[in-house]
Each structure stands twice: as structure tokens, then as C-alpha cells.
């Protein structure tokens, strides 16, 4: 009786969690001990799959997948288009007796050869060697994707060219994680850490998104084609009441969120938080952080599931960074940290002098990295969509600065002065000798305007766009922190050789770093004019648009740091610059073309119809000798706006021939201004597009 009661109840969540992942837990039941041990070592420490066990792993994976109803497998990869790609093959193989057997070989598991000539390669592949190869990344487990009638085994893979050139985002991400781990391991040695595991980075991405009713979406060519509204005047009420943020969740949205959580839990993504965001119809989902590589894969799968599940609920999930002008846009807060060789978070201020010293060392490495490579971080979040958001006083500005909070800044000040006396804390801080005062988490997370904030035990890079793969930002982050640690370790190693006492050389090193890089620290309001002026004085870059920001990828400085840490070769980096620039112009061009189409074929006809109605009214009134002053006035106003709209359309036409992004943007704005003004006066029943108020409030 007692025994029975004590037996732990398994909740519905525990029962489904990870049910669709070929995880270590599930593998154990399918693999021999030898194969299991070898594979789990590969998964935990990275590295290549042991070929001796490949056949066994493939068979186990297939048996498991088939037991889950899978008929197909696919290599799932992340080309430079920004989304994910997959090519499906069924498991069937003729059995020679008019039937089939389900088969899956080690070769099929390990390497795929999609005909990938249509993916962007930025000149990395000549057409004669257009093939791309996919190769399994064992550090990210295979998972099952459920369809309406059957399921597919998805194998996360890297995507490379014939000579191993990275054609995707996963390859450089894995390389950057390895580069960072290498320097973290060196750091550990210097600080006398007894290694118990390989170092790695962690990520917890907070994902913002909008949900609107599908019926409205279907009537908006701009949303269908570009993911954002190109027209629409701000509704009377939008977010000024601030009543949506953390408000109670409407049942229809809740149903979506519940289905999403179930789907995410099944594939082993630890979805944790869900809530309403600042703008109406805007929401957020956040998982518990995981190993960086896996967290990126999970975020990409999450975005895909959000779109699919919204559709099942008659909703559309908008992941664009700025779907509605004048209303808050969506970002992806990139919570990042480092787990060291002792399995502990090294951005957690420790509780003994030794751990504090290591914490300050890593903290200073991040500060140095962000200051020296702010331009690369900015480039990593540059996209046409994010251009609408960064600097719009709802998201961090394009100026990259670091927020530390008062207490930590005070400690940094003490380090700079080299006189370890802290006014705010009252204590004495001598690196490696004293403990830091406890930094309450609350005190560190108040400033939501900072692009790069220390939030107690991690850094939160807030400039990432909602629609982006988190890979880009983290490739840069890992690489530049690896570089900073590399330089700092070299200094300490040289000092050790010269028999300098460790704590003294550490104190001197950190003092030099703080002196040189404290300009990047800013705890104030990042939205103010004063900060923008101050940042300019401090010499911090302010790269406002995507083309400006992307230029930093084409510099010798960028090539050197990526090459040194074997993250991207010069050719690979150049290809990315080319692809992202091309992407920018393509997006601008199709947005302009779409705006032109809507303006000419939907808005202009509606306005002309109203103009006709007004003209008839004025004419009829005159005929019967009545006064129609207001109709006359409105007619003039509408006619003026019609002219302005038509001019805007012609301006777009003129820019579509060239490829000057700024001109295109200006022409679109000119057109929009006239269209939005017309929306304010044309009768609602004549207006061809669902309004902002309908889309944002009716769901
Ligand atoms: P908020 O930033 O809204 O206050 P939290 O700080 O609790 O919320 O968490 C935000 C995200 O940061 C979550 O996804 C969480 O898992 C993640 N996070 C927390 N600790 C770490 C860490 N050490 N490394 C990476 N991400 C982390
Ligand atoms: Mg946060």
C-alpha cells in the first residue's frame, strides 16, 4: 500500500517528452553497450562517428523510426537561405519477391547527396561541381516529424561542397563552438580547473511572434508575399494601454500554445515560458537553455512548428521582425553562456575568490570581444526585416554596447583604478583574493534597452531578429570571445613563464582590458539622443542599415579572426557577404514590386471609386441647387491623394529598374504615405485591405 502510493506518478508531459527523439535514453534500448558507449562519447565530446558502429546505429535508428510509423528519412540542413531544407527518401527496398523491406544503411545515415545546385553558394561552387553533401551531426539527435498521414525521420546534417566548403550555417556554428571550447579549456588550465568534461556554450532563445486570423492574411498580398504589411494606418488603439503584455491569454491562442508545447516536448525541446507580448496579437515563447548547437536546431524546428500549428488553428504566425509599422516588432533574445571544463557556468559569479577571478576573466573577455568586434556582431543581425526594428526605440539601437548593471560596473571601475576598494559594496576587491559581493539577479536585468546585457549569469544579445536563425549571431559571438580569450590566455601564459605571480598578472591584465574597452559599457537608456551622441564621441560604430553593417564582413579584420579560429575561410566569408547583400536587394526589390501591385490594383481603384461617388454627389447637389461643401472638400482631398499615390507608383517603377535600396525604400514610403492617408478617408466598406485594427484585435 505504502509502496504503491510512493510510486511516482508519470504526468502526461513526462510520458510524451522526447518521445519523438532518438535520444541517448532511447538509444540505450536499441544499441549494444559498445555502440552506445562510443556514440554517447561522440555526442558529449563532439567529433566524428566511429565507422565501426555506423551500421548498427543506422539499423537501430531505422527500427525505432519505423516503430514510430516512419516511412521516410531526410537529411535536414540549414542552407544560407536562412530557413531549413530537407530531401526525403523512403526506406523501401525491393525484396525480390514482389514486396519491399524497410532498409537504411550506414552510408545513408552518414552522408547524403541532395542535388543542391539551386541553393545559394555565393560563388563557392562552380556549376560543374554543383553538388552539395550533407553529413550527420551526431551532436544533434535525429527526430521524427509528424505529418498528417505518416512520419519522417529527420537527421540533422551539415551541408558542404565537394571540397568541404561550408554551404550552410551549422558547419561554421559547430566550428565556432569548437574554437570557443578550445580557448575555454586553456583558460581552465590557467585557473587550475580539474577538467571533468568538454567545454561548450549554452543558448536560451526567447522567440517573439504575431498571430493573426488566416482570413485577414489571405486578403493581404503583402503579408502573403513579404511577411509584413506594406500599407496600413495605425489604428486608434494599439499598444498605448500596455494592457496586452502578460495579459490573460485568449482561449484560441491558448489552444495554439498548448498544441505547440506538446509538439515541442515530443521532439525534446524544453519549452518553458509562454506569454502575451507588448503589442496586440504579439506573443513570446522561451525554452529552458540547452547546448548551443541543439538550441539552434530546436529554435529552427520551433519556428517551423509555429507556422504549421497556427495554420491548423486558422491562424497565421508572422515571424517577420516588423509585420506592422508603428507597432512593436519582434526579436529573438539570445541568452548565451559558457560551460567550462568543470561542467559549471563560467558566467556565474562564483562564491570563492578563485571562481570570482575566473568569472571576471571571462567577463572581461566578452567585453573586449564585443568592443573589438562590435561591427561583426552588428553584421550578424543585419537583415532587411531587422532594419525596421533596430533603432526604432522598441528594440536596441544599431549601436552595440554592453550593459553590466551598477554593481558589476562598480567592480569594473575598481579593477580599472587598480585600487580594489568598492564604494558601493563597501568591500575590498582584490582579484583572486577576495570574493565578490553577491550580485542579486534583479539588479542586473532592468535595462531592456541594451543590445547586449549581462543578466546575472549569462549575456543576452537582444538585437537578433525574430525571423533569423540564431546561428549567425552565435557564430560571431563564439569566435570573437574565443579570440579575446586566446589573447588573454597567451598573456597569462607568458607571465607564468616569466614567473610572475598569477594574481598580480591577472589583475594587471584585466586592468589593461578595462581601460581600453570600458567605452563599450553603457548602463543608461539606449533609446536617448544623448546616448547616440555620446556613443559617437566614444567612437562606437553606429551602422544603421544592412548594407552598411554587412561591409564589416568584407574587411581584413573579419577574414583574419574567422580564419585564425578555423570558423570560416576567406572564401566562405566572402560567399556570405555576397549572399547576404544579394538577399538584401532581392527583398527590397520584391517588396517594392509587391507594394506597386497593391497600390495600383487595389488601393488606387478603391480611391477612384470613392472619387467617382463624391463627384456624382457634388454634381447632383449642384443640379438640385443644394450645397455639398463637405463632399467638395473631400473630393479635392481624395483627388490630391490619388495624384500623390500615382506619383508614388511611378517613383517605384523608376527605382525597380536600378538597384539602389535607399531610393526604393523612399519610393515605397512615398506611396505608403498617400495610401495610408487615403485609408483614413475612404469608406471602410470600399477599402480593399483588412485594417490594422482588424488584424491586431480580431483573433
Ligand atoms: P528573462 O530574461 O525574461 O528574465 P530568464 O533570464 O529566466 O528570463 O531566461 C531567459 C532565457 O535565458 C531562458 O530561455 C533561459 O533558459 C535562458 N538562460 C538562463 N540561463 C542561461 C544560461 N546559463 N545560458 C544560456 N541561457 C540561459
Ligand atoms: Mg530575457
Question: Helix/strand/pairing class, anyone?
Answer: alpha+beta
**How far apart are the first and last residues' alpha carbons, in Å?**
50 Å
Bound heterogens, unique: adenosine-5'-diphosphate, magnesium ion
Named CATH topology of the largest domain:
Creatine Kinase, Chain A, domain 2
Give the number of domains. Answer: 3
CATH architecture level-2 label of the largest domain: 2-Layer Sandwich
Rg measurement, Å: 28 Å
Low-confidence parts, pLDDT < 50 over ≥5 residues? none
Q: Largest sheet, described in full?
A: 9 strands, mixed
- Globular, elongated, flat, extended or rod-shaped: what is the shape? globular
> In total, how many beta strands?
17
Our count of helices gives: 24
Structural write-up:
- By secondary structure, this protein is α+β, with helices and mostly antiparallel strands.
- The protein folds into three domains: 18-168, Ubiquitin-like (UB roll) (Roll); 176-568, 2-Layer Sandwich (Creatine Kinase, Chain A, domain 2); 584-697, Four Helix Bundle (Hemerythrin (Met), subunit A), CATH 1.20.120.1560.
- It is built from 24 helices and 17 strands.
- The strands form three sheets. Strands 9, 10, 11, 12, 13, 14, 15, 16 and 17 form a nine-stranded mixed beta sheet that branches. Strands 1, 2, 5, 6, 7 and 8 form a six-stranded mixed beta sheet that branches.
- A hairpin with a 7-residue loop joins strand 1 and strand 2.
- Helix 7 runs parallel beside helix 16, helix 15 crosses helix 17 and helix 21 (570-623) packs parallel to helix 23 (661-679).
- 45% of the residues are buried.
- The mean pLDDT is 92.
- The structure holds adenosine-5'-diphosphate and magnesium ion (MG).
- Adenosine-5'-diphosphate (ADP) binds at residues 202-204, 206, 286-289, 335-337, 345, 445, 455, 457-458.
Amino acid at each position: 500500500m505504502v509502496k504503491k502510493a510512493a510510486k511516482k506518478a508519470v504526468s502526461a508531459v513526462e510520458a510524451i517528452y522526447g518521445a519523438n527523439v532518438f535520444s541517448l535514453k532511447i538509444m540505450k534500448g536499441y544499441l549494444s553497450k559498445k555502440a552506445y558507449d562510443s556514440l554517447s562519447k561522440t555526442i558529449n565530446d563532439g567529433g566524428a562517428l566511429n565507422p565501426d558502429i555506423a551500421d548498427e546505429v543506422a539499423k537501430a535508428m531505422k527500427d525505432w523510426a519505423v516503430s514510430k510509423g516512419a516511412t521516410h528519412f531526410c537529411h535536414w540542413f540549414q542552407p544560407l537561405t536562412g530557413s531549413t531544407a530537407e530531401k526525403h527518401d523512403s526506406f523501401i527496398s525491393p525484396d525480390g519477391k514482389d514486396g519491399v523491406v524497410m532498409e537504411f544503411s550506414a552510408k545513408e545515415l552518414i552522408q547524403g547527396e541532395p542535388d543542391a545546385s539551386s541553393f545559394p553558394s555565393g560563388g563557392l561552387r562552380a556549376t560543374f561541381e554543383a553538388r552539395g553533401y550533407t553529413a550527420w551531426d551526431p551532436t544533434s539527435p535525429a527526430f521524427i516529424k509528424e505529418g498528417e498521414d505518416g512520419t519522417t525521420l529527420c537527421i540533422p546534417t551539415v551541408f558542404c561542397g565537394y571540397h568541404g566548403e561550408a554551404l550552410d550555417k551549422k558547419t561554421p556554428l559547430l566550428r565556432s563552438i569548437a574554437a570557443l571550447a578550445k580557448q575555454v579549456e586553456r583558460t581552465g588550465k590557467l585557473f587550475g580547473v580539474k577538467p571533468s568534461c568538454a567545454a561548450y556554450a549554452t543558448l536560451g532563445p526567447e522567440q517573439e511572434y504575431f498571430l493573426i486570423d488566416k482570413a485577414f492574411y489571405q486578403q493581404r498580398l503583402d503579408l502573403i508575399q513579404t511577411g509584413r504589411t506594406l500599407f496600413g494606418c495605425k489604428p486608434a488603439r494599439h499598444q498605448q494601454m500596455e494592457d496586452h503584455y502578460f495579459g490573460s491569454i485568449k482561449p484560441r491562442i491558448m489552444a495554439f500554445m498548448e498544441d505547440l508545447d506538446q509538439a515541442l516536448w515530443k521532439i525534446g525541446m524544453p519549452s518553458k515560458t509562454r506569454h502575451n507580448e507588448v503589442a496586440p496579437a504579439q506573443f513570446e515563447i522561451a525554452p529552458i537553455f540547452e547546448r548551443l548547437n541543439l538550441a539552434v536546431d530546436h529554435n529552427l524546428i520551433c519556428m517551423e512548428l509555429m507556422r504549421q500549428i497556427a495554420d491548423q488553428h486558422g491562424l497565421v504566425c508572422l515571424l517577420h521582425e516588423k509585420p506592422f509599422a508603428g507597432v512593436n516588432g519582434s526579436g529573438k533574445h539570445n541568452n548565451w553562456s559558457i560551460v567550462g571544463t568543470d561542467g559549471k557556468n563560467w558566467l556565474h559569479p562564483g562564491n570563492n575568490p578563485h571562481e570570482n577571478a575566473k568569472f571576471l576573466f571571462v567577463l572581461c573577455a566578452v567585453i573586449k570581444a564585443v568592443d573589438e568586434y562590435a561591427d561583426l556582431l552588428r553584421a550578424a543581425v543585419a537583415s532587411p526585416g531587422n532594419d525596421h526594428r533596430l533603432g526604432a526605440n522598441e528594440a536596441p539601437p544599431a549601436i552595440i554596447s554592453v550593459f553590466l548593471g551598477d554593481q558589476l560596473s562598480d567592480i569594473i571601475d575598481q579593477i580599472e583604478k587598480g585600487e580594489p576598494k568598492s564604494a558601493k559594496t563597501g568591500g575590498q576587491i582584490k582579484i583572486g583574493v577576495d570574493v565578490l559581493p553577491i550580485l542579486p539577479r534583479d539588479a542586473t536585468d532592468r535595462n531592456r534597452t541594451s543590445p547586449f546585457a549581462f543578466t546575472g549569469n549569462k549575456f543576452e544579445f537582444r538585437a537578433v531578429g525574430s525571423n533569423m536563425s540564431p546561428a549567425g549571431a552565435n557564430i560571431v559571438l563564439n569566435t570573437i570571445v574565443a579570440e579575446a580569450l586566446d589573447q588573454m590566455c597567451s598573456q597569462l601564459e607568458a607571465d607564468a613563464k616569466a614567473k610572475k605571480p598569477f594574481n598580480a598578472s591577472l589583475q594587471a591584465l584585466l586592468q589593461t582590458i578595462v581601460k581600453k574597452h570600458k567605452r563599450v559599457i553603457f548602463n543608461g537608456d539606449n533609446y536617448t539622443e544623448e546616448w547616440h551622441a555620446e556613443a559617437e564621441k566614444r567612437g562606437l560604430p553606429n551602422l544603421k542599415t544592412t548594407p552598411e553593417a554587412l561591409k564589416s564582413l568584407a574587411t581584413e579584420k573579419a577574414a583574419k579572426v574567422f580564419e585564425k579560429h578555423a570558423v570560416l575561410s576567406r572564401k566562405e566569408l566572402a560567399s556570405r557577404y555576397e549572399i547576404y547583400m544579394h538577399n538584401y536587394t532581392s527583398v527590397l526589390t520584391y517588396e517594392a514590386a509587391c507594394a506597386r501591385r497593391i497600390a495600383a490594383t487595389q488601393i488606387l481603384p478603391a480611391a477612384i471609386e470613392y472619387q467617382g461617388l463624391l463627384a456624382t454627389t457634388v454634381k447632383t447637389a449642384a443640379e438640385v441647387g443644394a450645397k455639398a461643401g463637405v463632399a467638395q472638400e473631400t473630393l479635392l482631398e481624395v483627388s490630391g491623394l490619388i495624384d500623390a499615390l500615382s506619383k508614388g507608383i511611378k517613383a517605384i517603377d523608376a527605382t525597380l529598374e536600378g538597384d539602389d535600396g535607399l531610393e526604393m525604400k523612399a519610393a515605397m514610403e512615398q506611396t505608403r504615405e498617400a495610401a495610408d492617408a487615403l485609408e483614413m478617408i475612404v469608406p471602410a466598406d470600399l477599402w480593399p485591405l483588412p485594417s490594422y485594427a482588424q488584424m491586431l484585435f480580431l483573433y
